[in-house]
Amino acid sequence: xxxxxxxxxxxxxxxxxxxxxxxxxxxxxxxxxxxxxxxxxxxxxxxxxxxxxxxxxxxxxxxxxxxxxxxxxxxxxxxxxxxxxxxxxxxxxxxxxxxxxxxxxxxxxxxxxxxxxxxxxxxxxxxxxxxxxxxxxxxxxxxxxxxxxxxxxxxxxxxxxxxxxxxxxxxxxxxxxxxxxxxxxxxxxxxxxxxxxxxxxxxxxxxxxxxxxxxxxxxxxxxxxxxxxxxxxxxxxxxxxxxxxxxxxxxxxxxxxxxxxxxxxxxxxxxxxxxxxxxxxxxxxxxxxxxxxxxxxxxxxxxxxxxxxxxxxxxxxxxxxxxxxxxxxxxxxxxxxxxxxxxxxxxxxxxxxxxxxxxxxxxxxxxxxxxxxxxxxxxxxxxxxxxxxxxxxxxxxxxxxxxxxxxxxxxxxxxxxxxxxxxxxxxxxxxx
Length: 432
Ligand code: SF4
Known about the structure:
This protein is of the alpha/beta class and about 425 residues long. It has helices spanning about 140-150, 155-165, 170-180, 220-235, 255-270, 285-290, 305-315, 320-330, 350-365, 380-385, 395-405, 420-425; strands at about 10, 20-25, 30, 35, 40-45, 50-55, 55-65, 70, 75-80, 85-90, 90, 95, 110-115, 115-125, 185, 240-245, 275-280, 295-300, 335-345, 370-375, 410-415. It has two domains: about 10-125, no CATH class; about 155-420, Alpha-Beta Barrel (TIM Barrel). The structure holds iron/sulfur cluster. Iron/sulfur cluster binds near residues 192, 201, 202, 249 and 279.
């Protein structure tokens, strides 16, 4: 149900306390601009969402009496971190002081207060509940860790998934593995052939922020991979194993080991989906993995435009065309293809991006867009890729509508689909 007015702006006292200012309606951010948010694009902050205070930043609001835009001088700006399965439609709008610290690698969606509730401009884009926070019982995760570590005492990868991923980083995918369900992560690569500005597993020392997790430090063997993934594919509901995780570099740099593992896995079971999350840099390696039995690929990108992709990924020895070719290769083997599309309001919904996205979908016969929130400081990102003017924009929700109208068979979501969904009737949540 659409709101009948804008929510009020939020501010913090810098000590973790958040207040509403009813003299100002909250605005949203698109590119470098603060803009009013349409009433029907606000939803209540979903369960599992959080609020962040933004040091050195003043929120931009609309005066409820005059209608003029002005800063909220009462405290620091506030943003919403929306949980997985939801896509943010506008960033938090604020003015940044010269000495403000760079924000860590999280997403900063607009957030407001109305009728005793917090609101964010967002849509639930994915019906799958695999990472809904209500579904996690940490006690059960811990007992699963104990049981599985005992079952694979010498497996370095299982120990990494247990100690680092499930118990330290609280990774939703790793916790699902120790709960014997759905998508199991299989990190494998300590190295990468890209240098993403917002890399979540490795940030160079000279950068002002740290990575959200540490990169894997060893190369697992095919035996270590096969040992725990075959039982998962055999026994878990809607089983998927996914190479390419946030705690590693680029899995395609380990393609020979992954090929050996897939070949061995498929000798033991035909169940489930074998997926790779990747930067898509090596189409030849992707071809070899398809021949071994890879079922699906998810290629990450911040844009369908080369000139926006290259300054962000800063690739070593590969090019934007290679990621396009990797998507085409998997379709030639009738595999499932997704892009892990980092949504940045003001960039993703620009007319230039829309045209390039249409071309990418057509050229690659793409099957799915995973509309992911871009976890990065907006000012830092636009500064790093050299964008001063984002051009004409249509709004993220309108972009989703246009793409859905033109490509009705293209699926929208947030997670890699199970083989049951790939082969079954794939219903979507997105109501255009
Ligand atoms: S492709 Fe992944 S691991 Fe490599 S630099 Fe980018 S985010 Fe980091």
